[in-house]
């Protein structure tokens, strides 16, 4: 049975992911008697908080002819074959195809349920973006049975957060955020929400892990919990034992859509700055560095002479971004940003995004074996921007260049014929890959025919002879890996390390 990653809104779909379950023998250590007994009752705590947790109901009018069923894989009901003019023809047309008497598809309404919580007595409510996404109407249902229409103040898809506003007749019960950075694995956690539409449901568990990346967005650093959360819990709060909100329940891993103890909450430290910006501006204002980055693998680290794989490797620099005037270059490895260590690539986007626009920060980089510090003035990210595209300039090589073979590749200078064949930019320069050997290290690293080699060993190359010369220099220096900077046919840059033996 496949394991599925689910957002927690009641109508939400699922994306299959692979899972590996492993068991290994371990030495059992008896826990202390107090720990074995579990926490004291949370009845008083839940009673204090439950009125601040709400049920969010949304409705959406689906255009005629669209298909917005909950389960895309569900079998569709076949239309009975009836003789034209049959007295039952009109009935079955309407029942099976939702058509009017003229055979036209009618618009229909769909509904969904999720959770949320009040953060300001004046009527500010937080939930997941996917709970209210594309909704025409949003209604907030409170624990005392009252209902209020809500308007959307702002939303952010990248951390799946939305901020709503209602106008209550009296101040609402509200909860406060706590510092999720202080939460430890093993701490108790309590979830309150509306799983499957069952309002005011309280569950208890622990923080099972921190900083989980479930590939839902660029800023993933979820808290993992075994407190039971299910579909309908989306947007609900995860509390610590002091009643502070440490996360927003967002997704689960499950084979059936029900809880198996793998729930994920976006930490308060991540969502709080976003929520404040949505309240103030109705949009998110993130910091922007203007670089394309990739992870530092073990072989890339070896090619750069690093003791261990760490940091974020700059594969490209935006000509209009703040990194370029600050002196950052492709091939630099960012080790620290504004005083924070970059242990792995995905640490950097979160830190940059949370940095105030126009703030000057120090960036520690590794360049050709030397550590240096650059000062960057963080700019504002344009959320509509696409990926950074490389733009290189140079003159064309002769039309019949020499073919060079090395590193499991056949390479050629860029001719008009190859430029047209691989749809390369008119101003592209470098050495184009014309063949990749089967079973080679280059094939394993996803080097493709049509890729253009821009650098070898952090030195620019403009023809196949430059590549051969640079490879020999690296071999003589005792280097075991050659670091290549590649540009694909879309102009996107990346580094790969290929073995020299």
TrEMBL record:
Keyword Signal applies = yes
Which interval of the chain is the signal sequence?
A: 1-35
Outline the segment boundaries, as ranges, of region: Disordered. 61-84
Residues covered by the PDZ domain: 277-345, 385-489
This entry's Enzyme Commission designation comes to 3.4.21.107
Task: Spell out the InterPro entries in the cross-references.
Answer: PDZ, PDZ_sf, Pept_S1C_Do, Peptidase_S1_PA, Peptidase_S1C
Highest taxon of source: Bacteria
Question: Record's SMART domains?
Answer: PDZ
Catalytic activity from the UniProt record: Acts on substrates that are at least partially unfolded. The cleavage site P1 residue is normally between a pair of hydrophobic residues, such as Val-|-Val
Q: What subcellular compartments does it reside in?
A: Periplasm
Keyword Hydrolase among UniProt keywords: yes
What is an example of a GO molecular function annotated in this UniProt entry?
Answer: hydrolase activity
Please state the protein's primary subcellular location: periplasm
Q: Which PROSITE patterns match?
A: PDZ
Keyword terms = Hydrolase, Periplasm, Protease, Repeat, Serine protease, Signal, Stress response
Q: Which SUPFAM superfamilies match?
A: PDZ domain-like, Trypsin-like serine proteases
Spell out the family assignment given in the record's similarity comment: Belongs to the peptidase S1C family.
Q: What is this protein called?
A: Probable periplasmic serine endoprotease DegP-like
**Which species is the source of this protein?**
Labrys neptuniae
Which lineage do the record's taxonomy fields give for this organism?
Bacteria, Pseudomonadati, Pseudomonadota, Alphaproteobacteria, Hyphomicrobiales
């Amino acid at each position: 049975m496949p394991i599925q990653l689910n957002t927690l809104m009641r109508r939400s779909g699922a994306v299959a992911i692979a899972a590996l379950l492993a068991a290994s023998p371990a030495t059992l250590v008896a826990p202390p008697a107090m720990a074995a007994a579990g926490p004291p009752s949370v009845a008083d705590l839940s009673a204090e908080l439950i009125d601040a947790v709400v049920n969010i109901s949304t409705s959406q009018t689906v255009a005629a002819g669209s298909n917005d069923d909950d389960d895309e894989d569900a079998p569709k009901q076949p239309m009975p074959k009836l003789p034209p003019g049959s007295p039952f023809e009109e009935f079955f047309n309407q029942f099976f195809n939702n058509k009017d008497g003229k055979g036209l598809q009618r618009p229909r309404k769909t509904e969904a349920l999720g959770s949320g919580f009040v953060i300001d007595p004046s009527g500010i409510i937080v939930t997941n973006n996917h709970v209210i996404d594309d909704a025409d109407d949003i209604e907030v249902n409170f624990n005392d049975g009252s209902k209020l229409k809500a308007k959307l103040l702002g939303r952010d898809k990248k951390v799946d957060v939305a901020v709503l506003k209602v106008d209550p007749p009296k101040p609402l019960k509200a909860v406060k955020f706590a510092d999720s950075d202080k939460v430890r694995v093993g701490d108790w956690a309590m979830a309150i929400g509306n799983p499957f539409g069952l309002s005011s449901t309280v569950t208890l568990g622990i923080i099972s892990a921190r900083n989980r990346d479930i590939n839902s967005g660029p800023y993933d650093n979820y808290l993992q919990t075994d407190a039971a959360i299910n579909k309908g819990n989306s947007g609900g709060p995860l509390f610590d034992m002091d009643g502070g909100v440490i996360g927003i329940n967002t997704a689960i891993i499950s084979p059936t859509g029900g809880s198996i103890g793998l729930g994920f909450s976006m930490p308060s430290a991540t969502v709080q700055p976003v929520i404040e910006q949505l309240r103030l501006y109705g949009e998110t204002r993130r910091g922007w560095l203007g670089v394309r980055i990739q992870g530092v693998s073990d072989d890339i680290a070896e090619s750069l002479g690093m003791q261990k794989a760490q940091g974020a490797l700059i594969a490209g620099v935006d000509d209009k971004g703040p990194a370029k005037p600050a002196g950052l270059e492709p091939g630099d490895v960012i080790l620290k940003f504004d005083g924070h260590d970059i242990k792995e690539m995905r640490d950097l986007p979160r830190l940059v995004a949370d940095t105030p626009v126009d703030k000057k920060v120090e960036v520690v980089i590794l360049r050709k074996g030397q550590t240096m510090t650059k000062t960057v003035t963080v700019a504002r990210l344009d959320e509509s921007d696409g990926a950074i595209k490389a733009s290189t300039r140079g003159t064309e090589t002769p039309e019949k260049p020499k073919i060079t073979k090395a590193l499991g590749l056949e390479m050629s200078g860029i001719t008009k014929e190859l430029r047209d064949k691989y749809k390369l930019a008119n101003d592209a320069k470098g050495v184009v890959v014309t063949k990749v050997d089967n079973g080679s290290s280059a094939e394993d690293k996803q080097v493709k025919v049509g890729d253009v080699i821009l650098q070898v060993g952090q030195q620019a190359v403009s023809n196949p002879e430059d590549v051969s010369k640079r490879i020999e220099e690296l071999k003589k220096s005792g280097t075991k890996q050659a670091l290549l900077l590649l540009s694909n046919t879309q102009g996107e840059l990346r580094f790969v390390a290929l073995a020299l033996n």
